[in-house]
Amino acid sequence: MRKIFGWGARNGAMLNENKGGPWGSGGGSGGGGPRNPWGEPSRRPRANPGGNVTSLDEFLKKSRERFGGRFPHQDGRPYWLYGLAIAVLLWLAFTSVHRIGPQEAGVITRFGSYVGTMGPGIGFSLPAPIDRVQKVDVQAIRTVDIGSTDRSSENLILTGDQNIIDLAYSVRWNISDPERFLFQIKDPEETIREVAESAMRAVVAGVTLDEAIGAGRSQIEQRVEQVMQQLLADYKAGVRVQGIAIKQSDPPAAVNDAFKEVSAAQQQAQSYINDARAYALQLTAKAQGEAAAFDKVYIQYKAAPEVTRRRMYYETMEKVLARVDKTIVEAPGVTPYLPLNEMQKRAAPSNEGTAR
């Protein structure tokens, strides 16, 4: 055994001295012999033709050192796989999780077909393009204006008494069923406008001109709201009408001035009629009061005719004489005032006779 190990050690020393075997050095600085096929390759760093190491090489080297020599590229996996995984996660997060506001509803469609509605809060669905969620504000009050108040355009409607008026009004509405609102009719707002015009013309055709421009406007608004709601329910539009507001109800512009004069005359005549009625009511109330007072006096007259007659005479004379100048009539033997001078003269002779 010692001979064997000794022989191996000698052969190893010879190989080392030979530096690569019988073919010479495997790429050392000395020796010009052929290259040893079993020798180790040269470990000298290759010269960089550009001089210094580029910034990209330094970045990759530092990245490998930061990951402990396990940078993803060292494991044979390219960078784009990790980028793809991150993109997939972001895609799932942004297309599968939905935040629905307190006044909103989320309509879910799967390949274009309706599958459900999300309520307020956080909701989940399949990622796009499988599922799509469309948010709809179901509590916002929307307004459709029909006609113009500045006379830029006229909305002429025929009344029941064959007169024409220019109406400007607005319709307030909101969404009651998001599914039907989105998928039942093509253009919901245009449909609401047309339904409002049709309902207004149908209602105004049954009233007179005075009712359309006067006190009957509130009733017209209520009837138009009812007719509109019925039509939209028949269409299954998913819309609830909140109210109708008539902003302007005037004759056409061509006859507006003359109509205003007629209206002013009618209002003045109505004012005179109201004044006359108020005066008549005042006189009636006064007469009723006097009649009630006379009834009370008559009851007293029946109880004591002479006393009541005299009291009524005195009261009447008091009222009459209070409004005229006073006249004093001297009756024979009546002194209307106290004559102090004459009384002193009469008293003087009597005093002299007494002194004698």
In short:
The protein is an alpha+beta fold.
Overview of the molecule:
The protein has ten helices and nine strands. It is α+β, with helices and mostly antiparallel strands. Among the domains are: 64-136, no CATH class; 142-251, Band 7 domain (Tetrahydropterin Synthase, Chain A), CATH 3.30.479. β7 (156-158) and β8 form a beta hairpin. The model is unreliable at 1-34, 36-45 and 47-53 (pLDDT under 50).
Features:
356 residues, alpha+beta, Tetrahydropterin Synthase, Chain A, four-stranded antiparallel sheet, three-stranded antiparallel sheet, 10 helices, elongated
Main beta sheet: strand number and arrangement? 4 strands, antiparallel
The CATH homologous superfamily of the domain at 142-251 is named: Band 7 domain
At the fold tier of CATH, the topology name of the domain at 142-251 is Tetrahydropterin Synthase, Chain A
Helix content: 40-55%
Mean pLDDT figure? 77
Number of strands: 9
The CATH C-level class name of the domain at 142-251: Alpha Beta
Gap between N and C termini, in Å? 212 Å
Alpha plus pi helix count: 10
Task: Please state roughly what percent of the residues sit in beta strands, choosing from under 5%, 5-15%, 15-25%, 25-35%, 35-45% or over 45%.
Answer: 15-25%
N-to-C order of helices and strands: HHHEEEEEEEEHHHHEHHH
Shape: elongated
The computed structural class is: alpha+beta
Shape-level CATH architecture of the domain at 142-251:
2-Layer Sandwich
